[in-house]
Amino acid sequence: MSDGAAGLTIRAKDECRWDLVSLGEVMLRFDPGDQRIAAARSFRVWEGGGEYNVARGLRRCFGLRSSMVTVLADNPVGRLLEDLMLQGGVDLSHLRWVEYDGIGREARNGIYFLERGFGVRGALGMMDRGNTPISQLQAGQMDWEGIFAGEGARWFHTGGVMCALSAQAPAVALEAMIAARRHGVVVSYDCNYRPSLWKNAGGRQAASDVNRTLAPFIDVLFGHEGDLAAVLCEASHAAPWHSDESYAEMAQRVSAEFANIKVIATTTRRTKTANRNDWAAFAYAGGKVFRSIEFADLEIFDRVGAGDSFASGLIYGLIEDKGMQWALDCGVAHGALAMTTPGDSSMATLPDVEKLMQGGSAAVQR
What is the mean pLDDT of residues 302-331? Predict the structure, then answer.
């Protein structure tokens, strides 16, 4: 389709310290490589977290200035996470530390284990993130006025993972969103429904209730295939979107109820095997549906974090005013590249992304 304006008003770069501020949990990922978790004898570690991955992608791949709002327990694992985030280039001036009691009874840093799938065996993740410091963060404890008014930010990002961490987490996100909008900051939110996080907290209905409370304060809404219909819309069992018409129907329902949402962007994935998927995306803006370039039969090394890399690529395109179609293609290309390397975060460069957007091949570069 022909391109069109996203309808976003983005603050000037020279009046803001940050291009993006992100709110969310950062955990230590244990990666058993080509082994299964239960049989592994060694692990490689990475930092990871849905909202953090977006901030890191914008900094490392796209060169924008991003800052992370999170909380860690002050122990060696927390300091390892700090070091990994510093390597990712994300500003940590808004990282809060809480005292560690020596056993983790009061607060402990989140960890998770993730084994890659192969063929007919799907990937498997196991979370250990109870009682983490950021899950205890309360509304009123962060100086959002100082961040959005004093320092200045162009974009604020958070999501459903952050909001699932505790009963008070949605109030923290809401407080940040209200402050951001008060100061002309674009707000994006990734639905990111995780059944394991909502299992004992009300399931899909509870997630839907939270998202609908936050929806009036969102400008750009992200969701993986099925997330938006299942978590935000009334049609909780809508079919996957494989056509402009079906996607438009869903997006128009959301836009009719929440006119403040200017952009809706969604990845689509057809899983053939654990390491071979079709990968693409849709977006809706200005009353139009946009379809991305498609990667059919994409070979996957590590699929975790693809949606976050999609979000960072799309945000980059919009924040740099490159148009909705370019931003969508940038997001899906960045997500595709993120799945070719290990860890949650992208190892791609902007030239890598632009080459893939233009149909570049996997031939050796010399």
Answer: 96
